Amino acid sequence: MNPYQQYMYSYPHKTAYGALFGVSLADYAERLAGRGTSLYFHIPFCQSKCGYCNLFSVVGQGYDVMEQYIDAMERHAGQISRILPDSVEFSDLTLGGGTPLVLSVPQLERVFRIAGQLGFRMERRQVVVETSPAQTTEEKLELLKEHGATRISMGVQSFFQEELARLNRNHTVEQVRDAVRLIKRADFPCMNLDLIYGIPGQTEESLLSSVKQALSYDPEELFLYPLYIKKDTFLSSQSVMRQEDAFHMYGAARKYLREKGYVPYSMRRFVRGGDAGGLTGCGFENTLSIGCGGRTYIDELHFCMPYGVRQSQCRQILTSYMDEEDYLSVRHGYLLSEEERRRRYVIKNILFASGLSLGEYRECFKADLRQEFPVLTEWIRQGYAQSDGEWIRLTEDGFCLSDYLGPMLISDEVREKMLHSEISPMLEG
User: What is the 3-state secondary structure (H, E, C) of 149-192?
Assistant: First the structure.
């Protein structure tokens, strides 16, 4: 059994998306009224491409291209602002990428100003920013502090230079230490550090050493990601393989984090002291994305720009976004059927500590959860899940196998579209 089939971070996966016709964002704008919609800004630029990365990003772009991109984001946001209901209240803002802090300070100021033009107010809101060690400077952190950033997430991946080199990760361990010290000094409410396990040549000892070094900075959260070798990435071209004992290594790291007071809220996320801001059901949240790599979710409508990994593809998509005149026309995405909405709800809850409420499912979908998803009963029989009659949650063994269990919930229709996509996550190793 391969425990690493696929990371189910969203559903349906973007590789199942296809052409849409006659769909306008203006027809869905009223559904964003009130509270609860997330706002996401995608910054697709990186200084270099990490060996494992299949996210949408471009490298080697200068200041002028970044300026043109922000101009396009401003036009994008301007068109959306004209159709937004007056009552919309964005619950949070995320700057993701790519590497958002590759932008200059004036460019970052522009991005926050665009968010304000859409009606985002930072008071009592979550503001999340992703960064990397080489781009984390005191000046940029001061700017984030001024704009109410509440969570800074940084990809460390390893505290061993030779392991970073095997990932084609172009930062140094010393840059990591300098960046973490700057983030700690800025005193954000939450600092998250990401680590990767299964790196070629990595051992249980070196992984635990990286975990220990990360915890020495007292982060509020830590994420442990298994190494996936994905199509069209540098590591794939080098025929790199994940460590065969990765699952055992993960078990040791998970045990250590528990012992140090970090509570697992999923297979990947560990929260110091277990304070994750409350556990509630999910699966119906709306997200509005600005930029060429982000995805928008509004009820059954999911959409984004076409997906690419190779730099030639990404540059073409970037140019297409910057040349766009009508950002309200939705041309590439997925309209979820009632069945797919139910599957999304199950996936978005069972793989996290919140678990599945049988009562909430019955109230939302007028159906019996266990009858509609008999695989859950099978997981209970196998010891991967447990039920108290009102809730179904994964067991410790089940959480560790999330990337094996989660793909079982994909519908035949979505699976077929993913398999025939040019870039298929079903081919991940």
Answer: CCEEEEEEECCCHHHHHHCCCCCCHHHHHHHHHHHHHHCCCEEE
Q: What angle do CA 310, 313, 318 make, to 5 degrees?
A: 120
With beta carbons less than 8 A apart as the criterion, state whether 332 and 15 touch.
no
Instruction: Kindly provide the b/e burial profile for residues 42-77, where b requires at least 16 CB atoms within 10 angstroms of the residue's own CB.
Output: bbbbbebbbbbbbbbbbbebeeebbeebbebbbebb
End-to-end Cα spacing for the chain: 12
Helices (H), 5-93: 63-81
Q: What is the pLDDT of residues 281-320, one digit of tens each?
A: 455 789 999 999 899 999 999 999 988 888 899 999 999 9
Residue 422: CB atoms within 10 A of its CB come to: 13
Residue type, 400: C
Which residue is it, tokens 């460019």?
A: 107
- ∠ Cα 126 317 47 (to 5°): 65
Is-contact 224 270, C-beta < 8 A?
yes
Residue 131 CA to residue 144 CA, distance in Å, equals: 11
CB 310 within 8 A of CB 52: no
Q: C-alpha distances in angstroms, 269 versus 100, 146, 257, 317? A: 22, 27, 11, 31
For 230, left (φ over 0), alpha (ψ -120 to 50), or beta?
A: beta
- Asked if 15 contacts 417 with a C-beta cutoff of 8 angstroms, the reply is yes
Give the model's pLDDT for residue 276: 52
Q: Is the entire prediction scored with pTM above 0.85?
A: yes
Secondary-structure percent of the chain, ordered helix, strand, coil, rounded to 5? 40, 20, 40
In this structure, are residues 195 and 156 in contact, taking their beta carbons and an 8 Å threshold? yes
